[in-house]
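Hi,

Apologies if this is the wrong queue. I'm a grad student, and the batch job for Ubiquitin carboxyl-terminal hydrolase from Anser brachyrhynchus produced an output file that my downstream script rejects. I'm not sure whether the problem is my script or the file. Here is the sequence I used:
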Amino acid sequence: MQRAALFGGGDAQMAAGDLGELLVPYMPTIRVPKSGDRVYKTECAFSYDSPDSEGGLYVCMNTFLGFGREHIERHYRKTGQCVYLHLKRHVREKVPGASGGALPKRKNAKLFLDLETNGDLNGDDFEYEDEAKLVIFPDHYEISLPNIEELPALVTIACDALLSAKSPYRKQDPDSWEEELQASKHAKTLVQLDNGVRIPPSGWKCSKCDLRENLWLNLTDGSVLCGKWFFDGSGGNGHAVEHYKETGYPLAVKLGTITPDGADVYSFDEEEPVLDPHIAKHLAHFGIDMLQMQVTENGLRDNDIKPRVSEWEVIQESGVKLKPMYGPGYTGMKNLGNSCYLNAVMQTIFSIPEFQRAYVGNLPRIYDYSPLDPTQDFNTQMAKLGHGLLSGQYSKPPMKSDLIEQVMKEEHKPQHNGISPRMFKAFISKGHPEFSSNRQQDAQEFFLHLINLVERNPVGSENPSDVFRFLVEERTQCCQSRKVRYTERVDYIMQLPVAMEAATNKDELIAYELKRREAEAARRAPPELVRAKIPFSACLQAFSEPNNVEDFWSSALQAKSAGVKTSRFASFPEYLVVQIKKFTFGLDWIPKKLDVSVDMPDFLDINHLRATGLQPGEEELPDIAPPIIIPDDPKDRTMNHFMESLDIDESSVMQLAEMGFPLEACRKAVYYTGNLGAEVAFNWIIAHMEEPDFAEPLVVPAFGGATSSGAAGLGAVGLDNQPPEEMVAIIISMGFQRNLAIQALKATNNNLERALEWIFSRPELEEESEPALDVMDMENHANANILAETGSEGPRIKDGPGRYELFGFISHMGTSTMSGHYVCHLKKEGRWVIYNDLRVCASERPPKDQGYIYFYHRIPS
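Support response: The file is valid. Your script probably expects a header line. Output copied below for reference.
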C-alpha cells in the first residue's frame, strides 16, 4: 500500500500489517452508521461539491457529514475528527474497439455512489468509475479501498455501511414519496354519517376557534377543525385531534389540498398520513365532486389542454431561441420534483442586495460559527444556497479550449451547470405538512414561510426581511353611527384583487365564451383562447375600496351592525411585493385560476395610498369590549367564547395569526403585553414558544381562577420585588438599557404600558444611561441564532417614498397552485433574464402581464 500526501507529493511504502497500527489511535472515533443516521455522501454541508467535483467529497467517519476540499480543514479544526472517507467519481472516455466503436466496458461494475450520471455525456462514449479511500488528517495519509484483509474489522464494516447507506433525501425523491404512504385500514369500511352536512368551496373556519388555515375535514361527520401546532409557526390549536379523541372518527382530509390527483389524508388512529383509495366517494358524501376533476398525464383536464398551451408557451418563451447565461448570478437550480416554486422564490430572494450581504457577505463568519451539524442550521444553508447561486462556481460556459483538451486526454472533467437544493429543501420544509411533500405548492405561501424562518433566525444586527415589512393602517367604520376605529398591522405582501368587471375586451370575451360552448356541444376543438385584459389601475382601485366587515360589533351601538374597512399604507417598504389574487375555488370545488392579463407597470407610484390617520371631524368608536357570552356547557366557560369580553386588540391578534401562530397564543401575547401592538406581542411569542401551554386557551383569574405561565411571568410581582424577566426583555428589545427597564417597572408596579410612559416622560434618564450593547459588536455565537438581550433589533420599518420600479416577477402555469409550473424573470444588468429551473437564459419577451407575484424596489428620491 501507499501512504501519500493528498495535496502534495511524496510516496512511502507501508506493510499491510502497519495499516492496523496506523488506525489504532483513531478507532474510538470511527462509528458504524445505524438506522436513523443521516449519511451525506453526495453533497458538501457548506457547498455544492460532490464526488463529481474535482476535489471529490470527504465524509467524516464519526458524524457522516460530507465536505468538499475547501471546507474539510474547517471541520477537522472544529471537531478534531481525523478519519474521513474520500469519495471520487471519475468520468473517462471508453477505449475504441477494433471496429471503431467504443468498448462497452466499465472498470468498476459497481457504482457504489448514489449519483446521477451527467446528462450532457453520451453513455456510449464515456464510462464512470467510483473511487473510495480513507484519508487521515492532519497528514493526509491515504489508504485505498477495498482493503478488507488489511484493515481492522470495525473500519471495514463502517466503510461498507457508509457506502451502502441510503440517501438522507429519500423522502424528497419523486418516485419514493407515494410509496411511503400506505392505504388506511379504515378507508374501505369508513362509516359516514348521513347528517346533511355540505362543505362549501371556500370560507372555511374551525368550528371551535374560528381559525381559517390548516383546516381538516373529518370524513365521518363533516366537522371542519384546525390541525396541530408546528415548529415553524404554522398549524392550529389541535381541535381536529381533540375531536377524534372524543368521537373516534379516524380519517380527515386537509382542505385546500384537494386536487384531481387526490388529497392529503391523515389517520388519527394510525398516527400518520395515509392514502384513501375511496377519497372521491368520501368527499362526494359532503358535496365535493372530484369525479369531474379527471386529468391527463400532463396534469391538465382534457378541456383545458388547448387553452393552456398558450400560457405555457408564452411564460416560458417557447419557440424563441434564448441565449444561455452563465457566471455569477446566473446559476440554475434543479427541480427536485415539483420544487419549481422554491427555485423561483429563492432566485428572486438572492437577487436582492440586502439578502446577499446578510448571508453571502457574512459567509465566512456564518460558517466558522455554524453548529456541529451545519445541515440543520438555517443561516448556514441560506449562505450555502446564496453562494451557490452568486459565485458562478456552478455556472460555467463550455469553453472551446476545454473541449479540445478533453478530446486529447483520457479523463473528462464534468461541466458543473446548476445546483441541486436538496439539503436546503430538506431543512426548511422539515415538519411542515405541505413543503415537506413532493407536491406542487403555492409560491406566495412559501415566500411567507421563508420570511418567518428569516425572522426567527437573525444573522446580525439587521434582519434582511425588514426590506419587505410595512405597516398597514386599517380604518373600520360603523355604518350606522359613522364612528371609526384606526388600527395598524404588519404585512409583507400587497394582495391585489382581480377586477374582472373592468376588463377592456368584454365583447371579445363574450364572443369567445359563445364559441367555446358551441364547440363543446358539437365536440369540436375549442377556439383560440381569449384572455381577459384587466387594467392595473382597476386592481389598485379595488384594493383601496372599502370592504364589508363580517359580524361587526359596534361599540357605539353596543350591538352588531354593518361595518366597512379600508386599508392604507402606514409605511412603504424598501421592496414592495405585489400578489395578483388569481386563484379561487369554483362552486363545483374545482380549483380555478383566473386566466387574465394585467398590464403591470414598470414604474409604480402608490403615494396616494399613504395613511392619514384620524381626520378632523371623525369621532372614534368607544373602547368598549363586547359582552360576555357564557355557553351552555360549563366546561367551555374558560374557552374561546369568553375571550371576546377581554380587553384584547383583535387587529394585533389577527396580524400575528396571519403570520402562522396559533390563535390562542396570539390572544395571550397581545393580552399579556398590554395591547401595545403586534411588534411587542411578537417578542412575547418568541420568548414563550417552547412552553407546553403555548397554544392553550387563555385563562385569567377573573374567569378560571388560575393563570397560565405567560400570566404568571408578566402579571405577578415576584417575592423579591424584582420585575418579571419577560417584561424586562420586552423593554430591552425596544432599545432601552436593562437598568432603566427595571427602574421603570418598579416605579409602576410592573405595569408594562405605564412603565413605557414613565420612560418616555423622562428622556434625561435615557440619555444618562449607558448605551445598549451593539449587536454587530458581538461574536456570532451559535451562528447568531440568539439575539443579544441588551441589543437593539434596529429599525423594523424602512419607510420612505412610495415610488417603485419593477425588477422581478414569478409566473405560474397551470390550473391551480397545487399543480403546474413556476418560473421567474429578473432584471439584471439592464436586461431581463428567465430562470426556468436549471435553464437560465436572456429573456426576449418577458410576459410581464401574466405574472403571479411581482417584486418592486424603491426609487431613491
